[in-house]
Specification:
The protein has 390 residues and is an all-beta fold. The chain folds into 3 domains: 93 residues, Immunoglobulins (Immunoglobulin-like), CATH 2.60.40.10; 197 residues, Jelly Rolls; 45 residues, no CATH class. It is globular, with a radius of gyration of 27 Å.
C-alpha cells in the first residue's frame, strides 16, 4: 500500500477550523492524521480595514480606516502603523491613531484620473509586524443613480459578467478587453457619438443600464448632483424592433416637464442617423440549442442612438424616468450626459505658461461649464489647485 503526505500553506490572518478530503477515482482512501504548524513568531494582532477596496474619484481624497484588535498582546513602546505603495497614481498622507477606538486613519489622495493601486499597511508591536493590503481604485464616479442591469461583458465566460440580456435570446454588448473589433467601449468607458457628445458608461462590474420592459412602472435615474442644465443627452439601444419610449424630466423643486416620446430604432441596420455603428454582440446564455456561450454574431451592424431633450435651465435638473408599452421589443438606456448651463469657465484664471485642461467639482466629476462653487482645476503641466467661482 502506497502512502503520501501533503502540505498546504494557509491564508494569513485567518484561523483554520476544518479540513475536508474527497476521492474521485478510488474508494480506498484513508486519512491517518492531520497536523498544523502554528506561526509562533507572528503577531497575534488582528487588523480590519474599513473596505477591501477604497474607491476614489479623479484627483479626490479618501481615507483607509484600519481597526486593530490586540488579541491578548501587550501594547509595546514601538506600537505603530506604516503605509506604503509602489504605485504612482496615489499619495499617502500622515497616519493618525485614535487609541480610544483602536483605529488608524490613513489619508489617500488620487493623483490621476484613472488607475489602480495597492496599499500595504504594517502594524508593528514588540518588534513583530502584522501586514495587510488594501486596494485603491480611481475612476469617474457615477453622475446618476438607479441603474439596474449589467448588459456589458468585460471578460469571459460572458454569462458570469452580466445580469440581463438586451433581447429575449441572450445577446449582450462587450468591451475591448473581450475583443477589439465590434466592442462598445474600452477601459475608459467613454463613447463619443457621431454628434460629438461624450458619454461615460457606468462601471462594467456594476449595474450599467436600464432595460425597459413593456407596461412596467417607469424606471427612474436620479442625478447625484442636481444642476442647471440646458439639455439632456440620452444614449439608447432597442432589440427586436423599433420602440417608442416615454421620457419625463423632473426638477429639484418637484416640478416636471410634459412627457416626451423618443423612437429608438432597431439595433440592427445601417449607419444612417446613428450615434455609434459597427458594433458586434456576444451570446451570454449558457443553455441554448442554436448558439454557444461566448459566440460572436460577427455581422458588426449593430448600432446605438442618441436623443437630446431641451431642459428648463432656470431650474435644477434632478431626475428622468422612462417607460414604454410596445410588447416584444426591448429598449435599453445605456448612458446619460448633461449639458450644464454655460457660465463661469472664463472666470478661472490661467497662467501664461500653462493652460486649463479640466475642471472638476469636489466629488471629482468633470464639469464642462462650471457655475458658482468650489472646483478643482487641472492644468497642462499636471498641477492642480482649488478655485472658487462666485
Amino acid at each position: 500500500m502506497a502512502s503520501a503526505r501533503w502540505c498546504w500553506r494557509l491564508i494569513p490572518n485567518k484561523n483554520a477550523v476544518s479540513v475536508t478530503f474527497s476521492a474521485a477515482k478510488t474508494p480506498y482512501f484513508w486519512v491517518f492524521a492531520v497536523s498544523a504548524l502554528a506561526d509562533l513568531s507572528g503577531s497575534k494582532i488582528k487588523l480590519y480595514p474599513s473596505a477591501k477596496v477604497l474607491k476614489l474619484a479623479p484627483l479626490a481624497s479618501g481615507e483607509i480606516v484600519v481597526r486593530y484588535d490586540m488579541n491578548g498582546e501587550t501594547r509595546g513602546e514601538d506600537f505603530s502603523c506604516a503605509a506604503t505603495t509602489a504605485d504612482k497614481c496615489i499619495a499617502i498622507g500622515e497616519i493618525t491613531e485614535n487609541e480610544a477606538e483602536s483605529t488608524f486613519t490613513i489619508p489617500v489622495e488620487a493623483l490621476s484620473e484613472k488607475g489602480k493601486a495597492e496599499v500595504t499597511v504594517t502594524v508593528t508591536n514588540g518588534g513583530v509586524e502584522k501586514v495587510i493590503t488594501v486596494n485603491v481604485s480611481i475612476d469617474k464616479p457615477s453622475e446618476f443613480t438607479g441603474w439596474k442591469h449589467d448588459v456589458i461583458v468585460e471578460a469571459i465566460p460572458s454569462n458570469k459578467y452580466v445580469t440581463k440580456y438586451l433581447d429575449k435570446d441572450g445577446w449582450v454588448l462587450y468591451t475591448t478587453s473581450v475583443k477589439e473589433e465590434g466592442a462598445v467601449a474600452g477601459d475608459d468607458r467613454t463613447i463619443v457619438t457621431s454628434n460629438g457628445t461624450v458619454f461615460t458608461l457606468e462601471p462594467y462590474d456594476a449595474p450599467n443600464a436600464l432595460r425597459l420592459d413593456a407596461n412596467d412602472d417607469p424606471a427612474e435615474l436620479t442625478a447625484v448632483n442636481p444642476s442647471l442644465c440646458e439639455q439632456l443627452h440620452i444614449l439608447a439601444i432597442s432589440a427586436n424592433g423599433d420602440c417608442d419610449v416615454e421620457v419625463t424630466v423632473g426638477y429639484e423643486d418637484g416640478s416636471a416637464d410634459d412627457p416626451q416620446t423618443i423612437t429608438i430604432q432597431d439595433w440592427y441596420g445601417d449607419a444612417e442617423g446613428t450615434a455609434l455603428h459597427g458594433l458586434d454582440r456576444i451570446f451570454a446564455e449558457e443553455d441554448d440549442w442554436d448558439q454557444n456561450l461566448d459566440d460572436f454574431d460577427g455581422q458588426n451592424n449593430f448600432r446605438l442612438f442618441e436623443f437630446t431633450l431641451d431642459l428648463d435651465d432656470t431650474k435644477k435638473f434632478s431626475k428622468v424616468s422612462f417607460s414604454h408599452e410596445t410588447n416584444g421589443t426591448y429598449p435599453t438606456i445605456l448612458a446619460l450626459a448633461k449639458a450644464e448651463k454655460t457660465s463661469g469657465i472664463d472666470s478661472i484664471e490661467s497662467d501664461s505658461d500653462k493652460t486649463i485642461e479640466a475642471v472638476y467639482n469636489i466629488q471629482g466629476i468633470e464639469v464642462k461649464n462650471p457655475t458658482s462653487g468650489l472646483y478643482i482645476v487641472r492644468y497642462s503641466d499636471g498641477s492642480t489647485r482649488k478655485v472658487i467661482i462666485k
